[in-house]
Amino acid sequence: xxxxxxxxxxxxxxxxxxxxxxxxxxxxxxxxxxxxxxxxxxxxxxxxxxxxxxxxxxxxxxxxxxxxxxxxxxxxxxxxxxxxxxxxxxxxxxxxxxxxxxxxxxxxxxxxxxxxxxxxxxxxx
Length: 125
What we know:
Layout: H1 2-10, H2 28-35, E1 59-62, H3 65-70, E2 79-82, H4 88-92, H5 98-117, H6 119-122
Parallel strand pairs: 1-2
Helix pairs in contact: 1-5, 2-5
């Protein structure tokens, strides 16, 4: 969701990539939550950080506690930021139906969107 929001809002300013320590596949509820605000992430893919090793990053932004704890060390010239968000699949795990589960994705989506609104200033852009 964070990559989709960054691409939508700052596609000409930033080149966002999304990757994790593990690949879990694209979550259909995340796709639905993003579609509700007019952002199509259905073509995105879940990938591991190793898949992006060829990219020379200026910034790395982590958005979950697991990533901050297990993220590899980057060269000193790469600025890293961390902002932890709740994990929507974890929040939705005991939901009684899809609508209740989707509410968790919407909340996290909106939390990420608020953070991304401030991202250029956080990056000194």
